[in-house]
Amino acid sequence: MRLAFFAVLPGVLALWPIPTTLTTGTSILVLSSTFTITVNVPNAPQDLLDAVSRTKTYLATDNLQRLVVDRGASDAASFKASPALASLTITLQNTTSVLPIATEAVKDFSSRIEGYTLAIPNTGAPAVLSANSTLGLFRGLTTFAQLWYTWNGTVYSNVAPVNIVKDSPAYPYRGFMLDTSRNFFPVTDIKRTLDAMSWVKLNQFHWHITDSQSFPLSLPDFPELAQKGAYSVTQVYSPSDVQDIVSYAAARGIDVLMEIDTPGHTAIIAASHPEHIACSQSSPWTTFANEPPAGQLRLATPATVNFTTGLITAAAKVLPGKYFSTGGDELNTACYTQDAKTQADLKSSGQTLEKALNSFTQATHGALAKLGKNPVVWEEMVLEHTLMLSNNTVVMVWISSMNAASVASKNFRIVHAPSDYFYLDCGAGEWIGKNPTGNSWCDPFKTWQHAYTFNPLANISSSQAHLVLGGQQLLWAEQSDSSNLDSIVWPRAAISAEVFWSAKQPNGKALDGTEAQARLHDVRFRMVQRGVKAIALQPQWCALRPGLCNLDS
Amino acid sequence: MRLAFFAVLPGVLALWPIPTTLTTGTSILVLSSTFTITVNVPNAPQDLLDAVSRTKTYLATDNLQRLVVDRGASDAASFKASPALASLTITLQNTTSVLPIATEAVKDFSSRIEGYTLAIPNTGAPAVLSANSTLGLFRGLTTFAQLWYTWNGTVYSNVAPVNIVKDSPAYPYRGFMLDTSRNFFPVTDIKRTLDAMSWVKLNQFHWHITDSQSFPLSLPDFPELAQKGAYSVTQVYSPSDVQDIVSYAAARGIDVLMEIDTPGHTAIIAASHPEHIACSQSSPWTTFANEPPAGQLRLATPATVNFTTGLITAAAKVLPGKYFSTGGDELNTACYTQDAKTQADLKSSGQTLEKALNSFTQATHGALAKLGKNPVVWEEMVLEHTLMLSNNTVVMVWISSMNAASVASKNFRIVHAPSDYFYLDCGAGEWIGKNPTGNSWCDPFKTWQHAYTFNPLANISSSQAHLVLGGQQLLWAEQSDSSNLDSIVWPRAAISAEVFWSAKQPNGKALDGTEAQARLHDVRFRMVQRGVKAIALQPQWCALRPGLCNLDS
User: Which end of chain A has fewer CB atoms within 10 angstroms, the N or the C?
Assistant: First the structure.
């Protein structure tokens, strides 16, 4: 037996994110044709049973061959003489309160229990997975399903025995953000994305559902917003769609963090409520917004404040999670300076724009507090404005990874979402028309290798480390929709899954992209087998020969 | 009636590539529910009848709504009062020799007739398409099918009448190159790509079928090359696959230019013929090759020269086209300097390496000449080596667009394939492992806007202009396979289709990306409707509002 991270050849370990502790062997262990998963959980919730069922389906259908030159052919000689694993027993250690995965997944960060232990003997004796929560069992099932390959109909592992004494996440927030406003993504796309997220133990779906370009969210209390603001009647998330997505996510250990970005990034609200939008489609848009079309909520207008708090309430109340994002990025002051209504309202209330923004934010965050929810905002709300924000506010750092330290110094909790590491859309060229330069604003392309070097604690003092909740990669969708969703997101978005779950290798060393590459190939090929069109990272020649395409090989 | 290129709003014209001459109107013309295409061609070949059938299918199933805010809803009021087009008559002007499209498509460049004329009255009177070849008729059918939108079941044009007195390509070679060696693409992927190529009148499929990483081409005379060199038994192009692809392409007006790259880029041949490969998988690969694995044909060894000429002959003879590429890029001399067998053979023949390369090339090109075919080579064969090449050789310029002038000065015909404009793989990060920088060698991403500024005659004198056959965009597949084929290729590869077919606007002005953008959206959305996952170029908000997302809007 040896530590798995030395096992580069020939048995590259497929686990992702790499567990906290791990020992593996070199035995072949065949999965019995009668393999069963025994659920030793009293009153096992349905979503746990469903997860068990999905696990068995993956084992039967992944049909993933090992990424070695012979794809496993030479393993076959050992199949007959190898022990067969007949069962996996999953056990809940704390049975006083057995909750569905979906309930555990949407708890507040400090209450989420995702850890588990897993032991797979190389003798054929039953494997055992145990955890303190159904969510932990789900994470362990995910790990279990990554250990198996198929050759000629036989499902087997080549690294038995496997022992994971402890595996639990370094950070509670491991997310992926999808913008469904610039371009629309059907529900099936989102569900497929949630599945892929769950395979690498991502647990937060940050749903940037609306923006200036379209308002696909249909809310019973505000039906007109989608009726007038969606791209079409078929490009809408109905209330049942939202519930469907939230339920689907939660059953896979994923909390949905919805964002309705305010007061900027709201131009399309003018389609149904022109009275609430300043500088609606004003020209030149470059004066009034970071991208077309211009238009922002009249944050100084009492009726608009009421409208917005009502909207935030209507959206937040349908979600089970404890957090909701009110956005707050890229507020444009020229828009308000030139808006007569805003100027009049500021004058009558005797407020500055900054004071009005504070009142506006207090109102929306107050609405969330009434629902028992905490606000999430983009970094400008604490770094560029002087607002009175509760310290239960979570701040997403996006402009630069360097800004995390400033946010920490203000004692706010942080989600790392830096454009310089984690923006998946960068590097594909400018989408603005008639642009002589034509480059992406956040060039270059954020490679998986670069993202993998992200240090969540860079410039964060040990006394501030508790403020770092985790992080996420993000897809802004100006140049994306169904056509390229899988290929632009996967396997790259698995990088933050490992950065924030594993944080380091089982041997205690820092994560190392050279070590990770072969495992990432495995993630990618398994995703493809499961119907997610993750891109190739290298020629297949290289994928089958770990290390031989390294620069120094 | 007005010239179409002024018709930016509201009736953006969908034609791509933009015809040589064009006038359009502003009338609605409905396609009759009994619309027929009358084929006024004696003994019409089956592939023409099939093309007519496909055209009718596209008209019935494209179901593409206009890219305007109301998607065509306001057009519907005019449907009842508008004339209906009951038929299109297609006429061959020269009926002395009626050949299949497939035959016309694979003729030598100077003999290809792709022009046509098209007139669509706005009265309901029959539309007329005429040409001097079935290939020309096919191009005209492609244009016809781009003119129609659908709203609520009604198929209609909003720019009738349409008159194209003349449309013919500025350049005879308009290609797309696909590398199927670094990663494999199934036949279905290639056929879908050929369909998309035909929709924008691309006419050369440059099939870089083999390289150092895999040899997926199964040849009856050399079955061992794929048996040992393909990634797997399922990742092979069988002889019938090749015939299938060649026939499918030709019926769509596309000639297949196959390349077996020699003498470099051949490492995988060592799997079946180690005797022919020098520096096979030598380490460090950086000394012996531009990418792993190292390995080149022993160009100085008579048996290897015989083997290679046999191989080139075996591949070229199954293809109907007049050209075949023997490659010739990135020859590594260190590989031969350190290869004892090569050094011994050079010594015994008294040749320098350069002389041996000349003999090798004479042999492979001689084999092509015996088949009545002309050689195609990469630019190094004329710019970095001193070889005696026939001036019927076609040279692909790839290292830099600046090198075209040097090739022209040597009086060789040119296909523009410059990495600084047309490499679709650039900008996605480095794929070589353990690379601290991690950037793509040909950063940045080649945007459609940049590619569209390519000038085929830059630095080419008027007396040399006849040497420019055309050009192509290229997909090297180190980081691509089925997962991202459509999204990395389309709609970008449509850019060279317009650069080399249209070359200028119908008004005589230079091509202009700002004018082209709305039409390119249309290309993209129509491709998606036809099952090709072309990427979004902008937020849908912008796609529906041409010009409003321009930098100066």
Answer: N
CATH number at residue A164: 3.30.379.10
Q: Let me know if A330 is a catalytic residue.
A: yes
How many independent structural domains does chain A possess? 2
Query: Considering the domain boundaries, does residue A446 fall inside one?
Result: yes
How many interface pairs between A and B have CB atoms less than 8 angstroms apart?
222
Contact A444 B443 (CB under 8 A): yes
User: In this predicted complex, what is the ipTM?
Assistant: 0.96
Contact B449 A440 (CB under 8 A): no
**CB nearest to A537's CB, from B184, B431, B552:** B431
- Distance in Å, alpha carbon of A197 to nearest chain B alpha carbon: 18
Set A224, A330, A430, A515: catalytic member: A330
Q: Give me the pLDDT at residue B94, please.
A: 85
Q: Are residues A120 and A243 in the same domain?
A: no
Round to whole Å and give the CA distance between B480 and B486. 10
Query: How many C-beta atoms surround the C-beta of residue B424 within 10 A?
Result: 23
How far, in Å, CA of B553 to CA of A287, rounded?
Answer: 11
In sequence order, the 6+-apart residues with CB closer than 8 A to the CB of B375 are B323, B324, B325, B326, B364, B365, B368, B389, B390, B392, B393, B394
Provide the Cα torsion A498, A499, A500, A506; round to 10°. Answer: 70
Q: Is B370 helix (H, G, I), strand (E, B) or coil?
A: helix
Interface test with B, best of A68, A424, A445, A532 (most B CBs within 10 A): A445
CA A134 to chain centre: 20
Query: From the CA of B485, how many Å to the nearest CA of chain A?
Result: 9
List of chain A residues whose C-beta atoms are within 8 Å of the C-beta of residue B480: 535-536
The nearest CA of chain B is from the CA of A109 a distance in Å of 34
C-alpha span between A194 and B530 (Å, rounded): 27
- Per-residue pLDDT, A11: 57
Residues A11 and A141 in one domain: yes
CB contact under 8 A, B484 and A484: yes
Nearest Cα neighbor of A250 from A106, A39, A56 is: A106
- Res B4: pLDDT: 36
Nearest to A194 by CA among A147, A247, A148: A247
